[in-house]
Structure formats: structure tokens, C-alpha cells
Amino acid sequence: MKDLSARILNMAQMRGATYCDVRVVNRTVQTLGVKDSRVQEMVQQESQGFGVRVIADGAWGFAACSRDDYADVDATVNRALQNARASALTKTREVRLGQPEANKGVFRSAFKLDPFMVSMSDKINLLLKADSEMRRAKPKNVHLVTTSELVFVREEKTFASSEGAFIQQEIVESGCEIQALATNEAGEVQTRTWPWGRHQQTRGFEFVLEQQLVENAPRLTQEAVELLRADACPALDATTVILSGNQVALQVHESCGHPIELDRVLKQEASFAGTSFLTPEKLYHLQYGSEIVNLTADATTPGGLGTFGYDDEGVPAQRIEVVKDGRFVGYMTNRELATEMNLGRSNGTMRAESWNHLPLIRMTNINLLPGAWKLDDLIADTDDGIYFDTNRSWSIDDKRLNFQFGCELAWEIKGGKKTRLLKNPIYTGVTPIFWRGCDAICDEAEWVVWGTPRCGKGQPAQTIRTGHGASPARFRNVKVFSRS
Asked: pTM (2 decimals)?
């Protein structure tokens, strides 16, 4: 890899590039799935190639290739330079990267059990057993569809630049999900999922074992069946809402993570992914949430899907404050925009889905820092409200301001206790108003780094993995209703 990188960098500079970097990526993805007691999927995909970014005539160019023989390398470098010079014909400003990033290092994510060394039979048997436990709890008058999935990823990446950077990284991910979908003769459909969507971390097979898929499987079916006959969530213009930790994570992702991407703020994503309500004049001035709301973008969080050693510009992983004591204080940046906006050094959030994609500003681990409450105490402290658990649907405008989220289930809270089970619950709000209504956050014992492995952005679209540390939290004066 070192020889390939050096050859590419030399070619690019000799042909007029003022800057060049190359990423060589080898990525393996293993997916196993079971549906209704039958194995549906056993797939292992491997992809290897390199992507070249250059600056020539003050503009960016990019090209990628899956082969590394001399002719293909030569053609790829030429294509990147041609793209840069074509872009320069319509440029509005010169690309400036700020101070050089000549970093050298090695990073490997921590894991105990290499998931690719665990036998396929052991993995499939785990899924089949979880599926069997879900189906064992099915009553006679209900139709049940059960699914379970395991996903494992190994990514080996080498980054080198004309500034002198040379970085090698290996990141292993493990993810899992089980789901019970129940229907009755009236056509009612209800779903329960564990842990939530597909939960995933940069850890080994030990992460999957900790999720206790088999142990939680019967409960999922029981709750899905109970939801078929549960009361609908009432329509209330203003009530108290407690969100489960996994729902807080999704709330953070959509209404906190995306708005702080500086390329969205500057309308570089406007035509596809949208913009952001967090425009530059709001930095250090907007009261984003209540004084107990503290958010960080932390690429160093152990186990997070947004955890790495260096981003795809060779900038070291960092922990930055995004919201401090409720006030908005930070964006996610890259080298170019941090320089353009006089924000100092990039905070290292550039990542690409694969070797054949350009890196974009992407969420790392956007974390809501824990508070001081125990969940049982928080419920006991709530006289009248609704507890929402596990996301089912989401909708948010292109500025990340007005949102609506539906959950798989909710519980009515009366007199500090959970009472009625409620189906089809939905809550809605406006981002800063909603977060200013946050008056309680649970403590570290309830705090989990939830994984969101399917975050989309870019044109052409890229899917990236992000993380969100979160614990249950309470919000006042929230509008709720039920899906019809």
C-alpha cells in the first residue's frame, strides 16, 4: 500500500497537482438473516480499490479505481486532474486547506471476539434460536412474521497525502436485530424490534452476545400481540413526554446531528439532503435547548459507530462541544470550510462510504451527555405523561426544524406509574422549542452508544455509520397523537 500510495502522489504532483491524497480501502461485509425459521441470507461481500483527490488550478478533482496495475493508476490520476481542471473553469474561489496535516499513525478498533472467526453455524444457530423463541410466544389467532439479522464489517484503510501524512486503520463492526410483526383478522399490524432497528458498534462478537437476542425474543412477540388490542395514543396539544434512550438517539441524529454539518449550513447539500436552521449568525448565540442539554461530536467514544483514529482527510479524531449548557457552540467541519469560515483547524469529520466515494462532512458520535436521574425515579416524578419507546417512523423538514416521530409503543403515565399500553404513538415539535423543554436526563447507568448504520447523505448518495450516546430524557409541553 505504501508503494502504491507513493506512486499515485508522485504522479499527481509531477502533473501539476498542488495537493493530492489517496485512500486505499479493503472492505468486507458479512450479512446473515433468518425469516420465519428459515435461513434467508448468508452473504459475504468484499470490495477493494483506491480513491484519489487532487487540487489543480485551485479546484478539486476526484477519481477512483478497483485495479492497481500501472496503466490503471496512471489513467485514474489523469482523470482526477482532468476533473479538477474542468471544475476550475467555473470555480468561485480557490480551495484553501489551512495548515498542513502531515499526520502519521495506526489505529485499530478494540474488540474481544473477532466476528469473522466465529463459525457460520454458531451465528446461524443464534438467529434460529431467537426466531424460535419469538414464534413460540405466538397465540393461535395471530399471524406472525419474525426476522433476525447479523451484520459484520471489517474495513482496512490506508491514507496518504502530498503533505506527508501516512495513516493505517482497521475498524471492525458488529450489528444485530430481531423483529416480531403481528397481524390479526381485522388487518391491524404491530411491530416490536430489539435492540432498535439494527444496533451496531465498532466492537466484536461480544457485542452481539451482550444484546441477549434469545432472552428478549419472547417479550417482543408478547408486546406486538398486546399492541394489537391496545388503546390508541390520545391526541393532546401539550403533555409531558419521556423518550427511551434509543428514541433520544434518533431525535439527536435527526434534529441535532444533521443541522450541525457545515456543508448543509452553507447550502452545499441543499439540492438533495437539504440545509440547516443553524445558520452562521446563530453560532454562540442561539439557545438551542435548556441549560441541562449538552451535546458533543466525539469520534473517540469507545464502541461508537462514528469512532475512528483519523478522518478521510487524515485529521485526528476529536471530541468537540456542539451544545454547551443549552447554547449552540459548534459545527462539524472539514479542512476547506474550517479555513473558509475562520474556525481554526478542522475537527475531523470527513468520511466516505467507500473507496469510490468522495469524503463528506458526516456525523461521528453525536452524544447527549448524561444527567443525574434514574429512569424509575424520573417516571415516579411524572404525574401525567407518556413514555415513548423505539422508533417506528420519522419525518423532518429540509432545515431540520419541524419534525414528527412515531414509535412502536408507548405507556401512559399516571401518578408516577406506567399504566395503559398505547399503540401508534406520534409526537411532534420544533427543534429548539422541543429541546428547551428538556427538564430531565437519565444518568450514565442508562446511557448507551446507539448505532445508526444507515445514515444517508450526498449526491450520489452515500450511506455511513454514525453513533449516538443517549439515555432516557423528559420533555415538557409536547404535542402527541396517534397514527390513523
From this structure: 0.96
